[in-house]
Recover the amino acids of this structure.
């Protein structure tokens, strides 16, 4: 599968490396893939030149990455996701499975972040992306756990859940297949893309559990009667 | 223990009946405890006259209820909680354990509700109550499950969690003791009252799980590495 990551941070690198290790054709897309940019240190991640050497995958521009991909991951900071996806180009997203991993976190009041008011409440980042790119097949997934857990759920022992939502059943099945390839066995389908409101609202409790417990190796399990 | 419920709806009636059945001295407080008001049908609850007859507990005004109680539950609709507690009287709350069970749900866009913008993001209802009544010892608890589960966690089989937060360790211990008396064994302390942001943010996913799964008999279990 030809997979493009929109964003070059720690989540992009972790997901991209895991997919490249499966033999997928992975490209990380950033705004300006110059040699200087690829050599730069990155927060909670390695320089992209180093990531490229380690994985054998590629780094390209947002637009090249999206144009060449069958499945696209949005792994940008949530407040900037719609702008980054516009830079990737609506025509390059049309018809594609677009897995939205981002969270619209607002750090303007320091830690802990809260959900951006323009992208929460009666809406969500997932919905904003689907509205901005109506021809993309948006699936919200992987946004409620640490990057290391996304690609290796066994890092947290026992049963715990991965949430998915989206309007396109086939696109959701593609995202679910990728999740299963990482070892996820318990997928919770939250329905259409308005389910992204619920998935993004997990962040405040996830961050709080990290702050009070000392580790981001946390997930939730839904328990029903 | 003398326990006052501020609010007379289904949550107040369920918690109040369970505490009265333990032999606690329970009073439900409403704005206007007239015979006409007590005879009125109530949404997802019985008329208070009927509740009173069933439980042997009492119904009084907000202020009388708060004045006579050692432990007070806020079981009003979250958008109206601060006003209801003002009607109960700051002096009647001073020094008391005040267990805030309410959620600041905004139904103005229909179902599903979202978190009231004035009481979410970088704040919460729990914090707003603590700020409005600095002498009360506010504990956020019981707000992430259906009323029937609050008083009988065994309705949902297996391990699942009750979240608590608050600034006063002794008040949290009182709330935890009440939870244990209902059968809760797994309590997750989220720290000071800013933890209420996380607890209230559980509502969007809880409501979504109800909508997609067909039953409110749902809770979450935190799973850690």
């Amino acid at each position: 599968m030809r997979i493009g990551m929109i964003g070059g941070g720690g989540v992009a690198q972790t997901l991209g490396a895991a997919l490249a290790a499966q033999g997928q054709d992975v490209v990380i897309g950033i705004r300006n893939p110059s040699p200087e940019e690829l050599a730069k240190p990155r927060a909670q991640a390695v320089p992209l030149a180093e990531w490229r050497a380690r994985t054998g995958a590629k780094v390209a521009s947002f637009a090249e990455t999206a144009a060449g991909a069958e499945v696209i991951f949005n792994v940008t900071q949530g407040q900037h996701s719609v702008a980054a996806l516009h830079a990737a180009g609506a025509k390059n997203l049309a018809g594609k499975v677009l897995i939205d991993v981002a969270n619209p976190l607002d750090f303007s009041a320091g830690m802990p972040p809260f959900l951006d008011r323009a992208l929460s409440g009666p809406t969500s980042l997932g919905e904003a992306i689907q509205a901005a790119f109506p021809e993309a097949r948006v699936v919200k997934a992987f946004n409620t756990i640490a990057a290391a857990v996304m690609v290796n759920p066994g890092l947290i022992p026992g049963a715990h859940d991965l949430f998915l939502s989206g309007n396109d059943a086939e696109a959701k099945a593609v995202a679910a297949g990728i999740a299963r390839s990482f070892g996820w066995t318990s997928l919770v389908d939250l329905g259409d893309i308005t389910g992204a409101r619920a998935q993004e609202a997990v962040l405040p409790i996830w961050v709080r559990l990290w702050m009070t417990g000392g580790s981001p190796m946390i997930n939730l399990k839904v328990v029903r009667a």
Observations:
- Chain B has a mean pLDDT of 97.
- The longest strand of chain B covers residues 218-224.
